[in-house]
Amino acid sequence: MKLKGCYIYEPDNAGTQFTPEETEKLGKYPYKKIFFYNNGITERAVVYTELTLKEIDALAEKEPIFRTGWRGHRLYEYKDGKLKFQRLWHFTAKQNFNSWKRCFEKVKLYKDKYASVDNDIVVNRKTKILGFERLRYCNNEMPYTLPFAVYKPKKIQGKLPLVIFLHGYTNGGEENLVPFTQCFHFSNKIKRNMKKNPCIILVPSIPRYCHYCTPQKDDCENRKDFDGIFNGLFEKLKENYPIDEDRIYMVGSSNGAGGVWSQLRLHPDRYAAAIPMMGFSDVVDDEYFESIKDVAIWAVHAENDSAVKIGKNRDDCYGSDVIVEGLKKAGATKLRYSRYKKFGHRVSGVFLHNEDWYSWMFEQTK
């Protein structure tokens, strides 16, 4: 019997690209399929393999990664010569590999299509969706183009708040359709009250397998991840729309909430209010908390969230309990925390539907 696995490799020693030696080493492993891509932070290799238990035994001594990720619709860990069931999985290893490959083939397709457009905005789709225009920001220095949707009042008088929604992991894409399934309650509430609080709504859509957050280890000038791309888009939006820079609000769910905490760290003076739902951060030091203690923040999480844990997560990331506690110790002046006992990784919909986040958000200003 052969077991199927899909793995992601990054360069050793925190490099941004594979060295020739690392590429040669990858080529020696018995992979059936492999492809390389750049997520804006580092080059990665995604591989698909089919191995017998005997072959896994021989390889696992050199490469511990072979001990995990064996799957059909069940995910197993291979330990001490035995398979240990971990959890059910929504697709097989081959389906996972093909999904990653299609994602970054599309990224390259649009990157090539708009190669002649640099630091500018183009129309992504002519048809609107739920009243949102679908556009795309292109910058030749960045690894991917950024589709985004924008909603604005029919009549604009004076400067308007900018409200940004960051979607969850795998909920992005080139068509900018899936994010609306996550932000429906959010955008619908704002649109219904557009006369009361006119504003501009922005919904970016990053590639399915990219992240919004900038890990601390990758924090540098001229970043080429989401933050680098978004900074360029932000400047273009200020040129094209009358944005009130004292009233910029950011809301995010899951991966998007990780992006919210990351944006607060990188730009503590940019945002008047933030609502990170089911979020995480790899930075939980006193300097970070001190820099954002005066920002209006309403954190949201559920105790039984198994996707993004409320405490310590893998990869040295920390959930809302840890972040909120750090902010309290720093003397945060405008902090709220909705900590639910249930609802798991779907708590964002419960929060947006039931809590008066709308009034609270629009009351905030820098």
3D structure, described in words:
The protein has 366 residues and is α/β, with parallel strands linked by helices. The protein has two domains: 105 residues, no CATH class; 248 residues, Alpha/Beta hydrolase fold, catalytic domain (Rossmann fold), CATH 3.40.50. The chain is built from eleven helices and 15 strands. The strands form three sheets. The protein has a nine-stranded mixed β-sheet, sandwiched between helices. Helix 7 links the parallel strand 12 and strand 13. Helix 8 crosses helix 9. 39% of the residues are buried. The mean pLDDT is 89.
List the main descriptive attributes of the protein structure presented here.
nine-stranded mixed β-sheet; 366 residues; 11 helices; 30% helix; Rossmann fold; three-stranded antiparallel β-sheet; alpha/beta; 2 domains
Amount of beta strand: 25-35%
Highest CATH level, the class of the largest domain: Alpha Beta
Radius of gyration: 21 Å
The CATH superfamily of the largest domain is known as Alpha/Beta hydrolase fold, catalytic domain
Number of domains: 2
User: CATH fold name of the largest domain, please?
Assistant: Rossmann fold
Helix content: 25-40%
How many strands in all?
15
Order of helices and strands: EHEEHEEEHEEEEHHEHEHEHEHEHH
In what order do the strands lie side by side in the largest sheet?
7-8-9-11-10-12-13-14-15
Low-pLDDT parts are none
Q: Give the rounded overall mean pLDDT.
A: 89
Q: In the CATH hierarchy, what is the architecture of the largest domain at level 2?
A: 3-Layer(aba) Sandwich
